[in-house]
C-alpha cells in the first residue's frame, strides 16, 4: 500500500477526532485547523510506520505533537505556565473572560467553558478520555506520560471541574 | 482501604480502569463509607454531564477540502522515479526475477493461510465498506428511525427479511439502512448512532461456515460478530469494543422475536 493510500484509508477517517482534539487544545477554530493541517502533512510523512491497528491513537499522538510545536511558536507562555505540576487554580487565566461567563446562563455552555478553562495538561487527558473514550493506556501513550499520571491528572481535572467557579456562576 | 486511598482511585474506578484486587477493596469501601460513596456518585454525574454537554467538534468541509488539497500537492511534488537508460535492462531483469520469487512465495503463503483468510475477508470487506460509507454520502439509503419503515425497504430488495430493532432507550438509535454487496450478494446494513459513533450492522442469513472470532480490530476499527437463531450479525464501528460486542450480541439474541 502506498503512503497516500495508507493515509487516505487509515488516517483520514479520523479527521474529526483530530480536529476535536486540536480544537480543545487551541480553543480556536482557525488555529485548530492549522494544527490539523500540519498534523496531516506529518502523518503522511510517517504513514509507512502505521500498521493499521490503533490508527486513531497514532494520529492523535501526531496532532498533539503538532499542537505543542505550534504552541511553542505562538503561545510559549501557555506551556511555561502549564507544566502540569502543582497547578492549583481551576481556571487558566488566558482561557475565558469570567465577566462574560457570568452573563451566560445556559448551564451546558458553562460546563464547556469550564472544560476549556482547565489547564492544558488536565484538559488534554480529559478530552481524550471523555470525548474520545480512549483507555488510560492509550492516553498514556499519546500524552507520553505514565498511566499513574493519566490517572491522577484525570482525577484532578474532574475535581477542578466540580469546583470550577464558572460552573457555579451559572447555577 | 481508607478514604485517602479511595479518593485517588474513585475516578479510575468509575472509568473501569482499576485492577480486580483494588476494584474489590474500593467497592467494599464505598459500601461502608457515605462520604466516599457521595463523591463517587457526583463523579458519575459529572461524567454524564460532560458527555452530554461538552461539544465534540467536527472538521468543517473547508478543512477536509484543505487537507485533501495539501495531500494532493505533496503527492504531486514527489519526483517521479527515473533511472539512467543504461541501467534499465539490468533493473528489468532483476525485477522479473524478484517477481517470480515473489509469486512462488505468495503462492506458498497463500495456500497455507487460505482457510484462515476465508472469514478474515468478510471482516476486512465490512470495515472497508464502513469507511467508504462514512466518508462519502452513501451512509444511508433509507433514513428513518422507525424500524417499520427500514425493514420493509430492505425486505423488498433482498431474498430475506432482516430483523430490525430500535434500541434507542439503550443508547443505540436506529438512523437508517442501506444495501451493500459482499461476495456478489446483496447484504442488509443497519445504521445506528451510539453517542458520537456510527455503527454499521451487516445482517446476513445464518451461514454454516466456521465461526468468526467474536471481536477483533481491523485498521483501528472494532468488528464484533454474533450468530443469532436465524441471522449472522457483524457490527463495525470506532465505538469501544465492549460496547460494540454487547450491542451485537443483544441484536443476535432477539433476532427472531421481531
Detailed description of the structure:
The complex is a heterodimer of chains A (171) and B (258). Chain A is mainly α. Chain A has 2 domains: 1-74, Orthogonal Bundle (Rna Polymerase Sigma Factor, Chain: A), CATH 1.10.1740; 83-171, Winged helix-like DNA-binding domain superfamily/Winged helix DNA-binding domain (Arc Repressor Mutant, subunit A). Chain A contains 11 helices and no strands. Chain A has helices at 3-11, 15-26, 29-45, 55-74, 76-81, 98-103, 107-116, 120-130, 136-143, 147-162, 165-170. The N and C termini of chain A lie far apart (54 Å). Chain B has 258 residues and is an alpha+beta fold. Chain B is built from 7 helices and 7 strands, in the order H-H-H-H-H-E-H-E-E-E-E-E-E-H. In chain B, a hairpin with a 2-residue loop joins strand 5 (215-218) and strand 6. In chain B, helix 1 (3-14) packs parallel to helix 3 and helix 2 crosses helix 3. The longest helix of chain B has 48 residues, at 88-135. The model of chain B is unreliable at 80-86 (pLDDT under 50). Classes of the chains: A mainly alpha (171), B alpha+beta (258).
Identify low-pLDDT runs of chain A: 83-90, 97-105
| Percent of residues in beta strands of chain B | 15-25%
Assembly state here?
Answer: heterodimer
For the largest beta-sheet of chain A, the strand count, sense and barrel status come to: none
Structural class of chain A: mainly alpha
Spans of chain B of 5+ residues with little confidence (pLDDT < 50)?
Answer: 80-86
At CATH level 2, the architecture of the largest domain in chain A is Orthogonal Bundle
- Could you tell me the strand content of chain A as a percent range? under 5%
The CATH superfamily label of the largest domain in chain B reads MucB/RseB, C-terminal domain
State the CATH topology of the largest domain in chain A: Arc Repressor Mutant, subunit A
CATH topology of the largest domain in chain B: Phosphorylase Kinase, domain 1
Number of helices of chain B: 7
Secondary-structure element order of chain A, N to C? HHHHHHHHHHH
Largest sheet of chain B: 7 strands, antiparallel
What's the overall geometry of chain B?
globular
For the record, the CATH architecture of the largest domain in chain B stands as 2-Layer Sandwich
Q: Alpha-carbon distance between the termini of chain B?
A: 49 Å
Total beta strand runs of chain B: 7
CATH class of the largest domain in chain A: Mainly Alpha
- In total, how many domains does the architecture of chain B comprise? 2
Amino acid at each position: 500500500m502506498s503512503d497516500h493510500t495508507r493515509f487516505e484509508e487509515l488516517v483520514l477517517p479520523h479527521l474529526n477526532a483530530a480536529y476535536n482534539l486540536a480544537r480543545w487544545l487551541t480553543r480556536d477554530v482557525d488555529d485548530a485547523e492549522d494544527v490539523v493541517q500540519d498534523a496531516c502533512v506529518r502523518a503522511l510523512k510517517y504513514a509507512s510506520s502505521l500498521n493499521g491497528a490503533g490508527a486513531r491513537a497514532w494520529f492523535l499522538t501526531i496532532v498533539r505533537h503538532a499542537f505543542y510545536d505550534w504552541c511553542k511558536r505562538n503561545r510559549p507562555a501557555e506551556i511555561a505556565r502549564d507544566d502540569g505540576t502543582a497547578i492549583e487554580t481551576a481556571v487558566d487565566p488566558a482561557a475565558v473572560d469570567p465577566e462574560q461567563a457570568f452573563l451566560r446562563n445556559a448551564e451546558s455552555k458553562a460546563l464547556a467553558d469550564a472544560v476549556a478553562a482547565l489547564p492544558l495538561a488536565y484538559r488534554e487527558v480529559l478530552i481524550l478520555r471523555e470525548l474520545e473514550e480512549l483507555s488510560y493506556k492509550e492516553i498514556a501513550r499519546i500524552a507520553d506520560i505514565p498511566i499513574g499520571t493519566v490517572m491522577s491528572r484525570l482525577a484532578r481535572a474532574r475535581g477542578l471541574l466540580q469546583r470550577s467557579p464558572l460552573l457555579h456562576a451559572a447555577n | 482501604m481508607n478514604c485517602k486511598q479511595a479518593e485517588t482511585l474513585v475516578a479510575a474506578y468509575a472509568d473501569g480502569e482499576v485492577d480486580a484486587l483494588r476494584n474489590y477493596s474500593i467497592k467494599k469501601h464505598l459500601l461502608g463509607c457515605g462520604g466516599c460513596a457521595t463523591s463517587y456518585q457526583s463523579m458519575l454525574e459529572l461524567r454524564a454531564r460532560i458527555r452530554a454537554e461538552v461539544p465534540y467538534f467536527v472538521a468543517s468541509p473547508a478543512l477536509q477540502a484543505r487537507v485533501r488539497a495539501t495531500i494532493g500537492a505533496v503527492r504531486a511534488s514527489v519526483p517521479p522515479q527515473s533511472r539512467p537508460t543504461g541501467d534499465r535492462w539490468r533493473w528489468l531483469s532483476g525485477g522479473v526475477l524478484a517477481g517470480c520469487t515473489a509469486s512462488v512465495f505468495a503462492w506458498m503463503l497463500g495456500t497455507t493461510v487460505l482457510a484462515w483468510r476465508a472469514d478474515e475477508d468478510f471482516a476486512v470487506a465490512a470495515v472497508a465498506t464502513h469507511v467508504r460509507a462514512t466518508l462519502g454520502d452513501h451512509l444511508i439509503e433509507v433514513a428513518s428511525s422507525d424500524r417499520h419503515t427500514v425493514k420493509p425497504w430492505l425486505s423488498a430488495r433482498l431474498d430475506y427479511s432482516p430483523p430490525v430493532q430500535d434500541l434507542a432507550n439503550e443508547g443505540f438509535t436506529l438512523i437508517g439502512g442501506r444495501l451493500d454487496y459482499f461476495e456478489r450478494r446483496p447484504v442488509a446494513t443497519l445504521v445506528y448512532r451510539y453517542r458520537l459513533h456510527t455503527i454499521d450492522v451487516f445482517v446476513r442469513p445464518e451461514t454454516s461456515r466456521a465461526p468468526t472470532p467474536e471481536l477483533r480490530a481491523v485498521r483501528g476499527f472494532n468488528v464484533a460478530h454474533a450468530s443469532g437463531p436465524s441471522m449472522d450479525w457483524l457490527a463495525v464501528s470506532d465505538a469501544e469494543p465492549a460496547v460494540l460486542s454487547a450491542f451485537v450480541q443483544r441484536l443476535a439474541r432477539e433476532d427472531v422475536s421481531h
